[in-house]
Design brief:
The complex is a heterodimer. Chain A is an all-beta fold. Chain A is built from no helices and ten strands.
């Protein structure tokens, strides 16, 4: 069985006076239903320029009902003012500034759940990995 | 007063493909208030709970959130408060680390049963 493990640690030595912060969590990336691992992956890196406008990171899909995709995205820009905005179709998820990354679940079964990225401020090299279920691509909207 | 937060993500897979997937990425974040240390909220099926309120202005808050449920196939949807658009679903034991847009907010929606969600957030300085 596919066994992709994602682990996160979040630490800080000065967030709370007198005590340090140490959060740790780990999970195996599973398909919806939690019995089978996600065995498909898309990984890559590219450079997103402001001239690119909105760019589809991942098209919406029609198949894979209740899909339980996972998305990793990192902005490798070095200028602190350059950021990548991630949208879920027409909804802003958030902004990744230089060096920032995200890891979030993605409902790939929704035909409105196209993942869209756009660079602001300047060109942003980025890398990504999408762990996913079977899919049928639909037309962008 | 800004403080430093260091999040690290590690992805590892030695079974799915002929090659091993193993990478790690870390970051150094300057964060400030509003912030919330680790806390939990129980969200019933079809009920919602606010994780980060829609602030009404653009900004970034870093959110760690985990579904602590281990029994049954209960889950929570992550969705914006503004528009209630669903990003995705956290199944048993799954977590996310997301730089959310403070102008959209974040809430969870219980699916199929009561789920205890653990979360913390910090606002980008």
């Amino acid at each position: 069985m596919a066994t992709t493990t994602a682990s996160v640690s979040i630490s800080s030595s000065d967030l709370t006076p007198g005590t340090s912060l140490n959060i740790n969590a780990s999970t195996t990336c599973m398909k919806a239903g939690l019995t089978t691992g996600l065995e498909k992956i898309e990984m890559g890196k590219n450079i997103l320029t402001t001239a690119n406008g909105t760019t589809s990171l991942k098209l919406a899909t029609a198949a894979g009902a209740d899909g339980a995709g996972k998305v990793y995205l990192c902005n490798n820009a070095t200028d602190d003012t350059f950021y990548i905005r991630l949208d879920l179709h027409d909804t802003i998820v958030g902004r990744l500034y230089a060096g920032d990354w995200l890891f979030l679940p993605w409902s790939q079964n929704d035909t409105d759940n196209e993942l869209v990225i756009q660079a602001f401020g300047g060109s942003c090299p980025y890398e990504y990995a999408i762990f996913k279920e079977d899919e049928t691509i639909v037309a962008g909207s | 007063m800004a403080t430093e937060l260091i999040p690290t993500l590690t992805i590892n897979d030695t079974t799915t493909f002929s090659d091993t997937i193993n990478f790690s990425v870390t970051d150094s974040l300057s964060v400030t208030t509003p912030a919330s240390s680790l806390t939990t909220v129980s969200v019933a099926s079809t009920a919602t709970a606010t994780i980060y309120a829609d602030s009404g202005s653009n900004g970034t808050a870093f959110v760690f959130i985990k579904n602590t449920n281990t029994a049954n196939a209960y889950s929570v949807d992550l969705r914006t408060i503004n528009g209630t658009n669903v990003y995705g679903t956290l199944h048993n034991g799954e977590f996310a680390f997301i730089p959310i847009d403070t102008n959209e907010g974040l809430q969870v929606l219980g699916v199929d049963g009561a789920v205890v969600v653990e979360y913390a957030y910090w606002t980008k300085a």
